[in-house]
Amino acid sequence: EVQKFTSYERDTESGLNFAQARMFAYNHGRFTSPDPLAARATPFRPQSWNLYVYVIL
Q1: Residue 17 domain boundaries
Q2: Chain-wide mean pLDDT for the chain?
Q3: Residues ≥6 apart with Cβ < 8 Å to 4
Q4: Which of 17, 44, 45, 51 is geometrically suited to a Cys-Cys bond with 24, CB 3.0 to 4.6 A?
Q5: The whole model's pTM is what?
Q6: Can you tell me the distance from the alpha carbon of 12 to that of 26, in angstroms, rounded to the nearest whole number?
């Protein structure tokens, strides 16, 4: 596995980059799955959309 400039590790068999929580298809410029943190956010709790809430506390 080779690390690229983003420090993602490339899986040579699938051609995807491992980006910690999900895979990134560099030839399409997109992730192959939704952001796992966005799934926890709810529209009725705006603070749940803040990814840096731990800095504020």
Answers
A1: 2-56
A2: 75
A3: 10, 17, 26
A4: 17
A5: 0.53
A6: 12
